[in-house]
Amino acid sequence: MNKKLWAVLFLVCLVPLAAHAWSLSTWVTSVGGTIVVRDGVPQTSLNGMIYKNYTTSQPLTVKVNANTGYTISKVIYNNVTETPGQTSYTVQGPTAQSVQAYFAPQRVSVTAFADAGGTVTPTNLGTIYYGSKLISARKFTFSPDLAIASVASITGVPAGATVSSVLPAAAGASVTVTLPVGFTFTDNIAISGTFFSPPVAKTIASQTVLIGNPVTLDGSSSTGSPSSYSWTQTSGPNYPTNKVIADSTAGAQVSFTPTVTGVYTFTLTVTGGSTASTKVTVTDGTPPPPVVYDNITGLVHTQCYDCHSAYGANGPGIVSNVFGNWSSSGHKVKGVICSQCHSTVLAGDHPGPLRKGAVSTATFNYNFASSGSGNFCVTCHSPAIVTDFALSKHSVRAGSAACGFCHVLGVHNPTVKCIDCHNPDNTYGLAWPPPAYTFHSSFTGIANACKACHTTHNPKVLSIKTSCP
């Protein structure tokens, strides 16, 4: 009876213990670190996967540690990849638990930064691993942007590196930080350089005001945070007997009210000696005399250029270029002015349908149906210029450039000279004189002598059928 009772009691005690049994598998998959369970013996990659059974219901601590020069690249806990950076895990039954640790060589960041006022090259050394050594020296060069500026300081220079100059360096000089051969990378490196630029005087170049109105001389745009400003008048009406400001007048801004018309000049000097000049023209409001042009140029200037150069949607630069091209063109010689192309019979249609971009710069054809169709030039010129060109060798060489191949200044100055290409020094590989036509050897360099015999757009066709001069 007693034996049966003891057997029953044994089974009753054993069942709870069996119910709490669970397993933990740990695995260091690569070199570079360890796994430690309950502060036990560190497990490395040499141990492979380790299984252990536990019957405790208490949680266990599993620590993942990276060796020097390595980082934890990944931890998989119970088949789930954990958030990077976590190194300690709490595992607990009754279900099976698993921890896998992955390690990788530690990367070292090596960077260089330049503050405002200069540059540094290179800005980094790319991928560097902990413990690696240089087999050739590496350099970081800090350079000021301005010749008057200098490298003021360099921080973050690691032990063993050298700096090429005592700081602050001379104005305009570059400074190099060198990591020598054999330098060993054991930590992140961040080298930073600052620059000093002495104050530079800056002011408004010129201004025009009416007599009796206040004028402000403004040096507040000076760079380098000058601590002092000094203004001096250097010329002007009745100078130096009468000066509108006293010599060495202080202040970033200085004002005066002129009572005499004329041109006044002033010099601003800031801390360190940098200077800048400004001019003030004082008038009584009388407009200057108009510029006199030759008849046709003056007409175009009055009708078009004066407004378009100041207010035109295309901008002053583009309008000036168009006017300049036209001024030296055959169109001007023939009396062709802007309004003959840029207007229509429609009342108030200004400047008409022929606007910027309406004509192709390559083919001289209309780009938009609203402007016209076909070739723009045949509006005035014979349609034969198009058909002749299509049959000529010129069209083969020009290709898609077409008209623009020869007429490089566009429709505003289509003037072109045969000798621009047809000359003894041409770069197109054209034989000179042409084979079997020895009379071309009498070429004298006259701009368009070719046209005495050849038609312009298809020079293969002779314009004089009997003989050539």
Brief account:
Helices cover 14% and strands 28% of the residues. With 469 residues, the protein is of the alpha+beta class.
Describe the structure.
With 469 residues, the protein is an alpha+beta fold. Among the domains are: 21-105, Immunoglobulin-like; 108-196, no CATH class; 206-283, Immunoglobulins (Immunoglobulin-like), CATH 2.60.40; 291-340. It is built from seven helices and 24 strands. It has a five-stranded mixed beta sheet, with no helix packed on it. The protein has a five-stranded mixed beta sheet with strand order 18-24-23-20-21, with no helix packed on it. Strand 23 (262-270) and strand 24 form a beta hairpin. Helix 2 (295-311) runs antiparallel to helix 3 (316-327). The relative contact order is 0.06.
Work out the strand percent: 25-35%
Most strands sheet: 5 strands, mixed
Q: How would you describe the shape?
A: flat
Structural class: alpha+beta
Mean pLDDT: 80
What is the percent of helical residues? 10-25%
Q: Count of helices?
A: 7
Order of adjacent strands in the largest pleated sheet: 3-1-8-5-6
How many β strands by DSSP?
24
Uncertain residue segments: 11-19, 310-317, 345-349, 465-469
Radius of gyration over all CA atoms, rounded: 43 Å
Distance between the termini: 149 Å
